Amino acid sequence: MTASSCCPILCRVWKSSIGRKFIVALTGLLLVLFLAGHLVGNLVVFLGREAFNDYAQLLHGALHGAGVWIARIGLLAATALHVAATISLTRENKAARQPYAHEATIQASKSSRIMIWSGLTILAFIVFHLLHFTVQAGSDFSSYVDPDYLAKTGEERHDAWRMVIVGFSNPLVVLFYLIAMTLLCSHLSHGVGSMFQTLGLRSKKSAPMVTAISKGYALLIWLGFVSIPFAILVFKFGR
Q1: Cα–Cα distance between 42 and 174 in angstroms, integer?
Q2: Among candidate residues 95, 114, 84, 119, the one with its CA nearest the CA of residue 14
Q3: What Rg do the C-alpha atoms of the chain give, in angstroms?
Q4: Quick one: 88 exposed, middle or buried, by C-beta within 10 A (0-12, 13-18, 19+)?
Q5: How far is CA 236 from CA 124, 170, 200, in A?
Q6: Which residue segments constitute the domains of the chain, with CATH numbers given?
Q7: Is the model's pLDDT at 109 over the cut of 50?
Q8: How confident is the model over 192-223, as pLDDT tens digits?
Q9: How many CB atoms lie within 10 A of CB 202?
Q10: Who has greater pLDDT, 49 or 109?
Q11: Is the pLDDT of residue 1 over 80?
Q12: Per-residue pLDDT tens digits for 150-185
């Protein structure tokens, strides 16, 4: 299939409200899977410098260094598309809503607006997170060298473990991180259920189980991600 033939198909999908709902659901699924994998990787920090730096070296060496950038660009693109489709659907629903709309519809609209703002905040956080730890704007993390690896091999490698410890020693960074994670998990607790519904995996019978999975997953993600800056800032882990 050529690029010229793909464009009309994508345009037709975007013009359809059903198509945009599937875009929201599929990008949401991609982001949900990414978060689980990212959390597992981040928790390696508790295993110490060597384990975490081995993990970081493995990631940055994938596809000769291109793999991690493909993942980052894909994450930003999926998040932007997810937010854009959600905003478009909310505007469309608002325009179509009649004065005699049911209370449930009005409540759903309010929930959608909350989802949009939390989604935009999460997008801003992703950009900040990349600037902080990847581009290292305003920081000199690039000068950190793993002392244990240097002593063992005689070669230098980036000390990603120390970068995380120092990065989360800043109370303002941790505060913004906690706010973003809380909004993210609030978003997840509603969004995962909506994703199941759009993909046809939710029924009246399975609704309670889907709700429990959504809230349980959101809580697990929140506890996992928050545990890292909390341990560093409060319990002085690694400091």
Answers
A1: 15
A2: 84
A3: 21
A4: middle
A5: 28, 12, 46
A6: 20-96+105-233 (1.20.1300)
A7: no
A8: 888 888 888 888 888 889 889 999 999 999 99
A9: 18
A10: 49
A11: no
A12: 999 999 998 999 999 998 998 988 998 898 888 888
Q: What is the reported pLDDT for 3?
A: 47
What is this structure's pTM? 0.81
- Terminal Cα distance for the chain, rounded: 54
Distance CA 215, CA 235 (A): 28
Residue type, 159: D
**DSSP letters of 23-39?**
HHHHHHHHHHHHHHHHH
- Structure tokens given for 151: 């002593």
Classified as helix, coil or strand, 148 is: helix
Residues shown for the chain: 239
Give the largest Cα separation in the chain, rounded: 74
Dig out the tokens for 8 from the structure.
């009309």
